[in-house]
């Protein structure tokens, strides 16, 4: 932070910042929470107010989805909660904001006709029904196209000759959809766009040669990609302003004025990188929630294509190797619910973080390799593990040691299992890391999940003060960056320089170095985990798939449960 910024901070109060709209509002649509975060745009480390809304995906007709009605009902409740929080803390209700940013789960498929009508239910990142398309595209384009990417969903619809393709006008992601409704502009931040179609680092937009290859393959069956995909913008660019209609969508009470600058909408992977100051080469981060993924900023291109790795970008457009696992801490949350109910039944109830704290502390007493137990957290399919569908399992042999400590250590190891398989591929590529950060609710119990992740990666892992704020804070920072860039008073800044000099200068990080026993124990666990995948495949092949439409309770990177 500059001396001038320090003086400005000292001379004003949070209420002054809110009244004068010296603010940036970040809204992120996570898997189970929609969260709003208001910061001081001059010093984004100052969080002025927050609000949130819990929601759930639904499994309908074998498709993971959210309704668009739920999108707007949820964001309105989250924004209303933020306004109430601001009034409670600072005695003032925001009537306008200086800048806004929208972030959401990456990938998936939202297809609209020319009138703006959704043609098929939103197909989220969690769906794994695009195997044929992903395989064909990976061969055609010469890069790994994961099952969850938007182009894989589009091409699967082409292969299946879906009727809606005759009416398709444009595609976008969840963040892009919300931004479009708020501003009238169909744009995406480059990080989110890189999960739709491969980006050319030289141009900062979709790779023109690969677009041409796809258009030739799909000619006559779907419009040209350049007419379907959103415009690509990089961090700091002007992505429009909040319209009167958009303000009413966020705040139906009429209390929010239009006109705020809106930054490019981003995916949760990009905002996680911002929230952990890991947008520069040789830095990386792990985000753990319903899914778990690692983002490692590359110094050079990968030597070859790996199905375990996506190549995406930072919000500034720098190439990133992404290890994305569909299954994160959901199964861990289910077990925590079992033990929470046991505590209630025994007459000594525990609630919220206290349940996780007790179970995580017990995991520290478990054996370094989990006592011979295996935990598979596969509620959904897992491409890295070669699974089209998931079956959560606990596996043990007669001579394994079933204790609470071993069970919980195995569950925590299970969260990191598939991630570790992908990270081993990066190790083989010789990718160097100076810093690895972690964020998500499961890291709030100090030193436990963080310690086990350090053992799994055999690398130091840092957790910042913002770990529980997550991507909503990260997109608020990007909104503040866009506001600063538009003002232009100090000349252009790089995103990495802005984070270093204006956001993270006063932050503290708690760093855990890998313990040798944890490294050896997790390595032994991972060997069993890899060999035991044959059991998981057999379970998926023989157990009947659930057709229930009841949403699966899942944890999030924000909020009160990991």
- The CATH architecture of the largest domain can be named as 2-Layer Sandwich
Strand order of the largest sheet: 17-18-16-15-21-22-23
Helicity range of the residues? 25-40%
Provide mean pLDDT, rounded: 91
Strand content: 15-25%
Radius of gyration: 23 Å
CATH topology of the largest domain: Nucleotidyltransferase, domain 5
Q: So, the CATH homologous superfamily of the largest domain?
A: ATPase, nucleotide binding domain
* Largest beta-sheet details: 7 strands, mixed
Distance between the termini: 32 Å
Task: Decide which structural class fits the backbone.
Answer: alpha/beta
Task: Give the total of beta strands.
Answer: 23
In the CATH scheme, the class of the largest domain would be Alpha Beta
Q: What is the number of helical segments per DSSP (H or I, 4+ residues)?
A: 19
Report low-confidence residues grouped into runs of 5 or more: 6-10, 545-562
The count of domains is: 2
Query: What's the overall geometry?
Result: globular
Write up this protein.
One of its GO terms (molecular function) is kinase activity. Residues 24-249 form the Carbohydrate kinase FGGY N-terminal domain. This is FGGY-family carbohydrate kinase. The two termini are 32 Å apart. 39% of the residues lie in helices and 18% in strands. The chain has 2 domains: 3-276, ATPase, nucleotide binding domain (Nucleotidyltransferase, domain 5); 330-465 and 513-542, ATPase, nucleotide binding domain (Nucleotidyltransferase, domain 5, 2-Layer Sandwich). The radius of gyration is 23 Å and the shape is globular. It has 562 residues and is α/β, with parallel strands linked by helices. The strands form 7 sheets. The protein has a 7-stranded mixed sheet, sandwiched between helices. Strands 1, 2, 3, 6, 13 and 14 form a 6-stranded mixed sheet that branches. A two-stranded antiparallel sheet has the order 4-5. Helix 4 (131-141) crosses helix 5 (150-159).
């Amino acid at each position: 932070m500059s001396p001038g910024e320090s003086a400005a901070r000292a001379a004003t109060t949070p209420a002054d910042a809110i009244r004068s709209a010296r603010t940036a509002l970040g809204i992120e649509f996570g898997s189970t929470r929609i969260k709003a975060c208001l910061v001081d745009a001059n010093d984004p480390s100052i969080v002025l107010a927050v609000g949130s809304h819990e929601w759930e995906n639904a499994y309908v007709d074998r498709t993971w989805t959210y309704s668009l009605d739920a999108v707007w009902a949820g964001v309105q409740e989250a924004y209303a909660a933020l306004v109430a929080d601001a009034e409670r803390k600072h005695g003032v209700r925001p009537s306008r904001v200086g800048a806004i940013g929208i972030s959401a789960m990456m990938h998936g498929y939202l297809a609209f006709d020319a009138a703006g009508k959704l043609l098929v239910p939103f197909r989220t990142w969690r769906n794994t029904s695009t195997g044929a398309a992903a395989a064909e595209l990976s061969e055609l384009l010469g890069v790994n196209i994961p099952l969850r990417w938007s182009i894989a969903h589009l091409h699967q619809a082409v292969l299946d000759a879906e009727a809606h393709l005759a009416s398709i006008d444009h595609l976008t992601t969840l963040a892009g959809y919300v931004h479009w409704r708020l501003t009238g502009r169909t744009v995406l931040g480059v990080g989110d766009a890189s999960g739709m179609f491969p980006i050319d680092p030289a141009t900062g937009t979709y790779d023109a040669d690969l677009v041409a290859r796809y258009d030739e393959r799909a000619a006559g069956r779907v419009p040209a990609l350049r007419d379907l995909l959103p415009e690509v913008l990089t961090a700091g660019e002007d992505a429009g302003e909040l319209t009167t209609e958009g303000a009413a969508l966020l705040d139906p009470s009429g209390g929010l004025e239009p006109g705020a600058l809106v930054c490019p909408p981003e995916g949760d992977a990009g905002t996680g990188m911002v929230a952990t100051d890991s947008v520069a080469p040789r830095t990386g981060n792990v985000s753990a929630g319903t899914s778990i993924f690692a983002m490692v900023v590359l110094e050079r291109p990968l030597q070859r294509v790996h199905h375990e790795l996506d190549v995406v970008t930072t919000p500034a457009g720098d190439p990133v190797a992404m290890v994305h696992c569909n299954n994160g801490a959901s199964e861990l949350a289910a077990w925590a619910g079992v033990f929470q109910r046991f505590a209630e039944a025994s007459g000594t109830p525990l609630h919220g973080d206290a349940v996780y704290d007790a179970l995580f502390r017990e995991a520290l007493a478990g054996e370094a390799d989990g006592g011979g137990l295996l935990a598979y957290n596969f509620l959904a399919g897992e491409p890295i593990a070669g699974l089209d569908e998931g079956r959560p399992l606990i596996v043990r042999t007669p001579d394994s040691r079933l204790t609470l400590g071993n069970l919980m250590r195995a569950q925590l190891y299970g969260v990191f299992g598939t991630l570790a398989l992908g990270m081993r591929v990066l190790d083989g590529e010789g990718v160097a890391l100076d810093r690895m950060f972690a964020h998500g609710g499961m890291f709030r119990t100090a030193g436990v999940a963080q310690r086990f992740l350090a053992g799994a990666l055999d690398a130091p892992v840092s957790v910042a003060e913002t770990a529980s704020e997550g991507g909503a804070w990260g997109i608020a920072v990007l909104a503040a960056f866009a506001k600063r860039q538009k003002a232009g008073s100090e000349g252009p800044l790089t995103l990495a320089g802005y984070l270093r000099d204006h956001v993270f200068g006063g932050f503290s990080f708690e760093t855990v170095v890998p313990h040798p026993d944890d490294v050896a124990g997790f390595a032994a666990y991972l060997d069993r985990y890899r060999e035991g995948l044959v059991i998981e495949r057999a379970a998926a092949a023989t157990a009947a798939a659930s057709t229930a439409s009841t949403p699966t309770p899942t944890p999030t990177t924000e909020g009160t449960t990991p």
